[in-house]
């Protein structure tokens, strides 16, 4: 089992939950029906949850089969513990899709059998069991089991959840002692930073120079440098998300404007025998290269007709009016557009990025 995955699974899921990280593509948009949006979002979330639950349950059954096929296999037993923990963490136990107490007993039996066959891995087995108790909110048992794991052999994997539980229980004065024991067990920079950051937070030590004094100057310098890097990475990620959100809003607003133009053109277009309006377009390409075109409301997200027009070529198009005609780039992003209605003669300008009469 990859120890890094065990360290990061709970932290990643918990951070998303705590931060409320749900991206809302409709933020800041106007002219939408809030109730319809909420209904669509609720349906999408329910479908996503059902799919996620099915995947987790399938993985749980896979782990149960692996333990049954190889009794005493430590890796299989620890993976089973991890997946039962996910059932608690992600609400499957609460939603009655998994019998939590029975699943814990199943994990306990698997880990005990594995420990009998691999006594040298007792610390790892206890850490897996302790983390499962954390997810199940059996905090007293979590502390006792993780302390037993640290007593068997100090590890970062056991120390990080243990010191959080101790802090939550009002026992932060015990944190640094466990951190000192686990520090030699940090085998790479990921372990090292995870341990130092958790120890500083749960000991309430303040600045690294004071709160990590027990670890020494090299660890303090490492921690400060790595923290600065993480802050910069997070800022860049936030900026990227904000730019993406702004682009989605701009695309939606452009789509809405095109729809309004079409409605206005439809309202003003002359009728033909009581039927809907039509357009007849003669389009010339004055650009020095072939230009991609899209006939429809939104080239990026909508349905319509895609075509292209060669350099110094003229073509004719017709159909139901109004119809928005776009120049698009290689990623199907709209560059320029106009609404075709009635009989028109237009050209793609020599800049390759606009239209004008012809």
Q: What features would you describe in this structure?
A:
Keywords: Signal. This is Tetratricopeptide repeat protein. The N terminus is likely disordered. The chain contains 11 helices and 8 strands. The protein has 2 domains: 206 residues, Serine Threonine Protein Phosphatase 5, Tetratricopeptide repeat, CATH 1.25.40; 113 residues, Immunoglobulin-like. With 358 residues, the chain is an alpha+beta fold. The strands form 2 sheets. Strands 4-1-7-8 form a 4-stranded mixed sheet, with no helix packed on it. A 4-stranded antiparallel sheet has the order 3-2-5-6, with helices on one face. The longest helix has 52 residues.
At CATH level 2, the architecture of the largest domain is: Alpha Horseshoe
- Oligomer category: single chain
How does the overall form come out from the CA principal axes?
Answer: elongated
* Helix/sheet category: alpha+beta
Highest CATH level, the class of the largest domain: Mainly Alpha
Total E-strand runs: 8
Q: Which regions contain 5 or more consecutive residues with pLDDT less than 50?
A: 1-31, 271-275
Terminal-residue CA separation: 69 Å
Written as H for each helix and E for each strand, in order along the chain, the element string is: HHHHHHHHHHHEEEEEEEE
In CATH, the topology of the largest domain is named Serine Threonine Protein Phosphatase 5, Tetratricopeptide repeat
Number of alpha- plus pi-helical segments = 11
C-alpha Rg, in Å?
31 Å
Q: Approximately how much beta-strand content do the residues carry?
A: 5-15%
Q: Return the domain count.
A: 2
């Amino acid at each position: 089992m990859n120890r890094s995955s065990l360290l990061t699974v709970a932290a990643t899921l918990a951070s998303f939950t705590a931060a409320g990280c749900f991206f809302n593509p409709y933020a800041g948009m106007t002219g939408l029906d809030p109730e319809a949006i909420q209904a669509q979002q609720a349906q999408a979330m329910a479908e996503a949850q059902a799919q996620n639950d099915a995947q987790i349950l399938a993985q749980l059954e896979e782990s149960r089969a692996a333990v049954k096929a190889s009794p005493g296999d430590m890796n299989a037993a620890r993976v089973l513990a991890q997946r039962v923990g996910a059932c608690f963490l992600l609400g499957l136990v609460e939603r009655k899709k998994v019998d939590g107490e029975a699943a814990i007993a199943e994990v306990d039996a698997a880990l005990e059998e594995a420990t009998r066959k691999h006594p040298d891995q007792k610390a790892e087995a206890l850490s897996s069991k302790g983390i499962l108790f954390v997810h199940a909110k059996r905090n007293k048992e979590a502390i006792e089991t993780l302390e037993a794991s640290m007593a068997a052999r100090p590890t970062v994997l056991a120390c990080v959840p243990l010191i959080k539980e101790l802090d939550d229980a009002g026992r932060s004065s015990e944190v640094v002692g466990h951190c000192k024991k686990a520090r030699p067990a940090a085998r790479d920079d990921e372990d090292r930073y995870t341990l130092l950051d958790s120890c500083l937070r749960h000991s309430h030590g303040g600045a690294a120079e004071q709160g990590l004094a027990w670890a020494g100057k090299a660890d303090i310098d490492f921690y400060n440098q790595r923290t600065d890097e993480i802050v910069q990475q997070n800022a860049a990620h936030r900026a990227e998300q904000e730019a993406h959100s702004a682009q989605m809003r701009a695309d939606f607003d452009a789509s809405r404007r095109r729809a309004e133009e079409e409605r206005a053109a439809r309202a003003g277009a002359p009728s033909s025998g009581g039927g809907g309006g039509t357009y007849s377009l003669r389009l010339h390409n004055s650009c020095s290269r072939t230009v991609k075109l899209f006939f429809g409301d939104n080239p990026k997200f909508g349905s319509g007709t895609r075509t292209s027009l060669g350099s110094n070529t003229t073509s004719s198009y017709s159909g139901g009016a109004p119809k928005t005609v776009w120049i698009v780039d290689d990623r199907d992003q709209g560059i320029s557009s106009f609404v075709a209605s009635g009989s028109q003669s237009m050209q793609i300008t020599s800049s390759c990025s606009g239209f004008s009469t012809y």
